[in-house]
Design brief:
The protein is mostly helical. The chain contains 7 helices and no strands.
Length: 150
């Protein structure tokens, strides 16, 4: 028996969720060749690290824009995501690579799962997924096409 979704949230949430999901996928690509945080931090003159930090800032900013009614899971501290964004963007020289590595490996997989679970609760979600996947920006999210066609 399928669960009945009681609320349909505004479709504006799709943009924020898709942007976070794409950022997560790019971060996973950027870290895929590294065994630990030191290797990741120093590789490519910190190119991968700096790109990842910027995507974490984007994740924190987009998180602020998602309706609170969608962020009901207790598996993650939603306010900490935005707080992380503020800390990183205002303390650039003090970013700890171990903290970034931990966020990526311990929290992003859970965040990804929770965001995907939000999608069916959003009005016209299939339409927005199809439109997004037609662009190059969201190409790492092709797995959503399969989920939306179930």
């Amino acid at each position: 028996m399928q669960k009945k979704i009681l609320y349909m949230f505004d479709s504006k949430n799709m943009l924020h969720i898709l942007t976070i999901l794409e950022a997560i996928e790019k971060i996973f690509i950027y870290i895929s060749d590294f065994e630990d945080e030191e290797e990741f931090y120093f590789a490519n003159k910190q190119l991968n690290f700096n790109a990842t930090v910027n995507l974490l800032i984007a994740i924190g900013e987009e998180n602020k824009k998602i309706d609170d009614g969608l962020k009901i899971s207790k598996k993650i501290r939603w306010k900490n995501i935005s707080a992380m964004r503020d800390k990183i963007s205002h303390n650039y020289r003090g970013i700890d690579e171990s903290m970034v590595w931990e966020i990526i490996n311990e929290y992003l997989p859970t965040l990804k799962k929770l965001l995907i679970e939000m999608i069916p609760k959003i009005k016209d979600n299939k339409l927005y997924i199809d439109k997004a996947l037609q662009t190059d920006y969201y190409k790492e999210l092709d797995y959503l096409r399969l989920k939306s066609n179930k």
